[in-house]
Amino acid sequence: MNFDALLAEQLEMVRSLKQRLSPSPNWRDRILSVLEGPWAPEKADLPDRTRALPGHEKGAFRVGARGYDAAVQRQTVKEAIGESERLWSLTPWTSVYEYEVPIAGLPKPLHGLTILHLSDIHFLKSSDRPWKEMSRVAEYLERGELQVDLIVLSGDVITKNPDDLCHNSLRQLRRLSAVCPQAFMVHGNHDYHGHVPAIISKHLEGVGFYDINNHHVRLTIDGAPLNIYGIDDAYFGRPESPSVIAPGETNIVLTHNLDAIREDFPQEVDLILSGHTHWGEVKFFDGSKAMKWWGYTDNINRHTKHWDMLTDRTRSYVHPGLARYYMPFKELRHPPGVAVHTLVSDERVLSNQ
Questions:
Q1: Rounded to whole angstroms, how far apart are CA atoms 103 and 346?
Q2: What distance in Å separates the CA atoms of residue 244 and residue 302, rounded to the nearest whole number?
Q3: Which domains does the chain have, with CATH numbers?
Q4: Helix (H, G, I), strand (E, B) or coil at 170
Q5: pLDDT for 132-165, tens place per residue?
Q6: 150, 114 in Cβ contact below 8 A?
Q7: d(Cα 350, Cα 353) in Å, to the nearest integer?
Q8: For residues 104 and 99, what is the distance between their CA atoms, to the nearest angstrom?
Q9: Residue 155 — φ and ψ, nearest 5°?
Q10: Which one of 8, 40, 77, 223 is most buried, counting C-beta atoms within 10 A?
């Protein structure tokens, strides 16, 4: 990937935008900045929404179950994943969500494959909490208490601008990739603040996290293929659906916002990993409503937290994220953290119906 050419183009865009938007903010912008908190970007750093998506139902990837038996199987898989959940606190702030994920037709070499799923870290230059929490995750892996085969980061690594990726933040990510070199990332909407996502990609690739936005990586594990498709952010990026996905192989899709997975996306998907909603942050509120109010999601696939089945084959997980903006009270917020997904064959699950 030619980061230098991308950087030159994006930096020129930033210069022109800041010249155009240089006047001081009016009273309304000042009030909104205070209400939104210290993570709110400057107006010149917030990209325009580049494409309008269809409404709530039109264009959804979600497909209803084909008959009663398929509906029962979907419910069985969801219940099996829910029952496998192990939730525990790594630190007073960061929790670990562990799941066993049944995959249809999973080859034997992929049985037990473990994925560390990170999302919505929101490193912030003015705060040391995100990188200190990530250092505890790195320490956990370094101690060897968890064997990880893949690491995926589904966007929003920064909060306001590329300067949020400070030395300490990058150092923690390097510690993760040193334990597990197979580490991949896609952009989230916050990674476009500042209009220079190429800087984010270049920094992350420098610490071992490989940019797969609108790209496909094919791994072979003891002869079994594993395909990972990265899809760019739905609103500030340019998400592109692959023209074809290998139907007889294990296929994982990584994206920040589930709205990027549209009706035209190939159906041969086993697992979608995304983030973005922070699960609404508070336990008693629906995250989809909050994100729609802020204009950051159309929720066309009607899935904003935990697990769901979008097709008879496709399992979907929306990550809780590591950041919390609005809810300081531990008793009221969904625990932020990281997720660990272990792939298992679904034969055992379905045979226990």
A1: 5
A2: 24
A3: 61-351 (3.60.21.10)
A4: helix
A5: 999 999 999 999 888 899 999 999 999 888 889 9
A6: yes
A7: 6
A8: 16
A9: 90, 170
A10: 77
Q: Cα–Cα distance between 225 and 60 in angstroms, integer?
A: 28
- CA-wise closest residue to 149 among 224, 66, 237: 224
3 state SS of 62 = coil
Quote the crossing angle between the two packed helices 167-179 and 197-206, to the nearest 10°: 50
The residue type of 281 is E
Per-residue pLDDT tens over the stretch 257-313: 999 999 889 999 999 999 999 888 887 777 777 777 777 788 889 899 999 999 999
Q: Return d(Cα 135, Cα 175) in angstroms, integer.
A: 8
CA torsion, points 110, 114, 119, 125, in degrees to nearest 10? -130
Q: Three-class SS of residue 152?
A: strand
Can you state the angle between helices 167-179 and 129-142, rounded to 10 degrees? 20
Taking phi first (over 0 means left), then psi (-120 to 50 degrees means alpha), and beta for anything else, what does residue 337 get?
Answer: left
76: tokens are: 């069985």
Q: Which residue has the higher pLDDT, 69 or 36?
A: 69
pTM of the model: 0.87
Q: Which two tokens stand for residue 352?
A: 């226990």
Is residue 114 a contact partner of residue 226, using CB atoms and an 8 Å limit?
no
DSSP 75-113: HHHHHHHHHH-EEEESSSS-EEEEEEEEETT--GGGTT-
Q: Is 295 helix (H, G, I), strand (E, B) or coil?
A: coil
Residues 49 and 237 sit within 8 Å (Cβ to Cβ): no
Tell me how crowded residue 238 is: count the other CB atoms within 10 A of its CB. Answer: 13
